[in-house]
Write a structure and sequence with these properties.
The complex is a heterodimer of chains A (about 300) and B (about 140). By secondary structure, chain A is α/β, with parallel strands linked by helices. Chain A has helices spanning about 45-55, 75-80, 95-105, 115-125, 135-150, 165-180, 195-200, 220-225, 265-275, 285-295; strands spanning about 10-15, 20-30, 35-40, 60-65, 80-85, 155-160, 190-195, 205-210, 215-220, 230-235, 245-255, 255-260, 280-285. Chain A is elongated, with a radius of gyration of 22 Å. Chain B folds into two domains: about 15-75, Arc Repressor Mutant, subunit A, CATH 1.10.10; about 85-135. Chain B starts with 12 loop residues before the first helix and ends with a helix. The relative contact order of chain B is 0.12. The chains are: A alpha/beta (about 300), B mainly alpha (about 140). The interface of A and B includes residues 177, 178 and 203 of A.
Chain lengths: ~300, ~140
């Protein structure tokens, strides 16, 4: 089933623009068939990392491999295996949508016309329109069609939905699920960088949170939602004095207490219970809340 | 059958799907022989990874709840778990124990707990009857 070679392997990657270090000693592994999220704020180093995978930048230290290949040495082979949607999509503005896709298809060994047709209908694009007259959302849609139709093993999405309206964003993600993931299970790998985490939440299997070029947290998405919890307790009188050092964040408001915990939930819940709270609830943190809690603590 | 998932429940998404299909089957909202939604439209609708839905369906198949007919899709099976009776009992005991522990912490005494179970079984029976009446109409 899964080939033992990871789709992406990044080891101790460092890259600096002049003296400004964008990525520092970053390591991560994306297994084939997974959907991997690269989360971080603007300027965290997400795009720089992706450019190293595409050989648009050369790592200054460390190594990157795509399906075991070094993009600098095997650029053509690597580009054959992946497709890419950048955050700023640029086409030749004088070309029509139809011509643009034909032009892009001419670089590819394989182009699924059926999927192309299906996505055209879904997005309601006009093939005769010049790409220079498309809206930002439509340009991204054309870029997604161009990325999905070659049916590559790896799809790299760099902030694909930022600046798009909510409907277009939803359609984008549904198209990724419906059209791209249609292939052989275990063979369609996705790497997506975003700070709009909520929309991709259901798609993400595993993620790395990067901040100022460094990996802060790497976790399986299900495990993350299990470990990170928000506990709310309300007491009849003011909350008891408890040792809450294991909590990531503590908020108090009158008789209420709100804690954000990472893995230490069971112990804290038990201790809160011993003080007979009027109400005690827990809920999992969404990936976006984990992002905020981790970067603010 | 409408499936709703929550990222705040702390339960893995594939398990939420498994539990909801099982709940729909026991309440009669999903009848034996009835088709489950195909993986692709369900994944798109819930906006979750297709592998997650596929994992849920294979888990349901392993548990003997649904069967996959190649080229036709997934269907709810007649109520026949392939597991031996002791094994089925053991699986249920784990769930019951969990509820008992919870009852203790919520200070629900024994009689009230048993009464509650009766009540919930009645609710489920009512739902099932409602679905059957609906089917006969």
């Amino acid at each position: 089933m899964n080939s033992p070679t990871p789709a992406i392997q990044i080891e101790n990657l460092t890259y600096a623009y002049g003296r400004a270090e964008a990525v520092h000693d970053l390591s991560l592994t994306v297994e084939a068939g997974r959907c991997y999220g690269l989360f971080g704020r603007n300027g965290a180093g997400k795009t720089t990392t992706m450019k190293c995978l595409l050989n648009l930048l050369r790592p200054q230290r460390g190594q990157v491999h795509v399906f075991g290949l070094d993009p600098a040495k095997h650029e053509v082979d690597v580009k054959r295996l992946l497709s890419y949607v950048p955050d700023q999509v640029a086409f030749y503005p004088w070309m029509r949508v139809r011509e643009t896709l034909d032009y892009l298809a001419s670089f590819r060994a394989n182009w699924n016309r059926k999927i192309e047709q299906e996505l055209f209908e879904r997005f309601q694009l006009d093939p005769a329109q010049r790409t220079g007259n498309l809206s930002k959302g439509q340009r991204t849609q054309v870029a997604l069609i161009a990325a999905v139709c070659p049916e590559t093993d790896l799809l790299v999405l760099d902030e694909p939905t930022s600046g798009l309206d909510p409907i277009v964003r939803r359609e984008f993600i549904e198209a990724v699920i419906g059209a791209y993931q249609q292939g052989v299970p275990g063979k369609r790998t996705i790497l997506v960088s975003t700070h709009l985490i909520t929309e991709f939440e259901g798609l993400i299997d595993e993620f790395t949170l990067i901040d100022r070029g460094r990996a802060v947290l790497t976790l399986d998405a299900d495990q993350a939602r299990e470990r990170y919890q928000k506990i709310r307790a309300r007491f009849a009188q003011s909350p008891p004095e408890l040792d809450l050092k294991t909590a990531l964040r503590v908020r108090r408001d009158g008789r209420e207490l709100e804690l954000i915990v990472n893995g230490a939930g069971a112990d804290l819940l038990e201790r809160l219970r011993q003080h007979n709270p009027e109400a005690l609830t827990t809920e999992a943190l969404t990936l976006e809340e984990i992002f905020v809690a981790t970067l603010k603590s | 059958m409408l499936i709703l998932i929550s990222f705040k429940s702390g339960t893995p998404i594939y398990l939420q799907i498994v539990e909801q299909v099982k709940a729909a089957a026991s309440s009669g909202a999903l009848q034996p022989g009835e088709a489950l939604p195909s993986i692709r439209p369900l994944a798109e609708e819930l906006r979750v990874n297709r592998n997650t839905v596929a994992k849920a369906y294979s888990e349901l198949e392993n548990q003997g709840v649904i069967e996959t007919l190649p080229g036709r899709g997934c269907f709810l099976k007649e109520n026949h778990s392939g597991l031996r009776k002791e094994v089925r009992r053991k699986l249920l005991i784990e769930e019951v124990d969990r509820a008992i522990v919870q009852a203790h912490h919520l200070q629900v005494p024994r009689d009230e707990f048993i009464e509650l179970i009766q009540e919930r079984l009645d609710v489920l029976d009512d739902k099932r009857r409602a679905h059957e009446d609906h089917k006969e109409d």
